[in-house]
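>> received
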Amino acid sequence: MAIEALNGGRGLITIPNWPFAMWLSSSFTLSSMSAAAHRKALSFVAPKAGDIAKVHFRTGTVTTGDDLHISLQDQDSDGNPDGTEDQYRVLTVGDGDDNAWLSTGIISSDGTDGGTKRTVAAGDRLSVVFRFNSYVAGSLWLQYIASASYNGLSAFLGSTNSGSTWAQALGAMAIAIEYADGTFAYIDNTVPFSSISNTSVGSGSTPDEYSLRLRLPFPVRVMGLMVRGASADTEIGLYPDSGAALATGVPQPANTSGSIIRKILFSSAVDLLANTYYRISWKPTTATVRTITVYSMASAGIRGAFSLGTNFALGTRADGGSWTDDETQMIMASLLVSGIDDGAGGGGGSCSYGALSNGTRVVPVAQ
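>> returned
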């Protein structure tokens, strides 16, 4: 096997491939439901075969508690919900359910735990639709991360007239789809977070270092890193799971004072092994407080809704000590990959890499 360079070794791809909206914003935006005719929807492509069991989503402010009717529908020729509620569940949202991560319970043909679930094949197109079951005067809000443009197959939609005319919201809905086996699978352009915290950290803080612990199912060559929250007085590093740094750097040019998304490039490439954990580290180098965004999930299994599956976690430590990991949290960081193993065996055979935990398979192709 050999690592094949991308465009001479300077062509870079980003792994993990985080949702597009996350690069553009680190906070939620509210989407209002405040009239009997209002509808919200996620139109998406089923990522894998199986039975869909539940929908998880995040509310915003709930000014008046109400019953939400949440259904699964086919799509029409425009990619919008077709209006036929094939499976559904009625969920009571209370006045106190502000900014809460909620679950529908089993969505089925008769709205009960014992009804028939929706069976999908990978690639099926369907929609999750939210409406009021019996509107009570007032409003509640659903959450999404807004962005200036759209990227991906999955669309967050809104309708103000009973679902007959739909308009796309520019952003990624805070939602996750659970299968009957309890797993989650990657749905492009969704952000399945229960909360987002912009955390202030300086070199004197405890902890003073945050990492994304991750592994890939194939060997790669890495030329750099990309991190949300990087600045000229933060050090970005690539570490083995424990031990000394493999490579470090500070974002350039020197005027990178704002804690925003930055790239660093290494002076030489670092080769990473398959199925081996590494860490992308972020830490301030001065007492000047910088901001790192920490994303939280309601359970460790929801990590399966990302392209990397459950192969990542948040790590924190103080003063270069031991790492403490949390599989329900993460920071936004990625490898800048300049080469991927070609999968060719030494005797002319080939290597087939195993699937990620969410069913995603990435099989490098020989150049």
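>> The two ends are 12 Å apart (CA to CA).
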